[in-house]
Sulfate adenylyltransferase subunit 2
Amino acid sequence: MNARAEPQLLGQLSNQHLDALEEETIFILREVAATFERPALLFSGGKDSLVLLKCAEKAFGAGRLPYPLLMIDTGHNFPEVTHFRDLRAKELGAELIVRSVEDSMKRGTVRLAHAGESRNVHQSVTLLEAIDEFRFDALIGGARRDEEKARAKERIFSHRDSFGQWQPKAQRPELWTLFNTRLAPGEHFRVFPISNWTELDVWQYIEREAIALPSIYYAHRREVVERKGLLVPVTELTPPRNGEQVETRTVRFRTVGDITCTCPVESPAANATEVVAETLIADVSERGATRMDDKTSDASMEKRKKDGYF
């Protein structure tokens, strides 16, 4: 093979791989629409949910999504992301339902141990309240198996009991793309159509499809402090601690969640092509490199999922 043909072949193989992932995702999205009475698509405005929304747009057409978008807002989300969430939903003509952890706090169903406690883990309560309010029987999420060990155990159609809990040993087999979607009263499914995608797949798809993202996914200047091997953004919610030196660095976010637990990484990558190049050589998962709440065993992902987390 000559040197000129090699990049072309690699591009074709990459496109074939992305085509297969996209086809699987569209199949699952259509399966949900055909199977369940009251599904919803969890939409944060983050990169994974935007990829999922792009596939849904291809599956059904703009302005024709058969289910609403649902966002559980901690009240501590990055404003760039929530603004983009609203803009994208409006562009698609999609119904956007937002439920807030702050409202759960007012009802007394969420109680913080102290004012500075992260609200991220408490999203489970607000989510279960939204499921009960709208009687959702399936929630479509953008989680991927490569993100974290507990998520690697997840089925594509992940059963939740009448308490909204996930029991890893009680999950149903998924052979030959046949899904057991039977539900007892009060139960529901969490469905993860991009389970088999990797972070690299997501960024290659974003590059190929020219998917617009919130600006914080790309290089920008931001005040940060170093803490336990992470770069913590300096905000009103995450102020510097005694002895910490505030620096302004060029950073980007690999994943975006609650401000109190999400950290950027140092990076000059200013567009999707440059992020793809960085992701190819990354040796730490995006959550491992950027999430403060995944560092402690008490707040492990598996425990939170058993309690009803996304």
Observations:
- Strands lie at 39-42, 69-73, 96-100, 138-140, 157-160, 188-191, 220-227, 230-233, 247-252, 265-266.
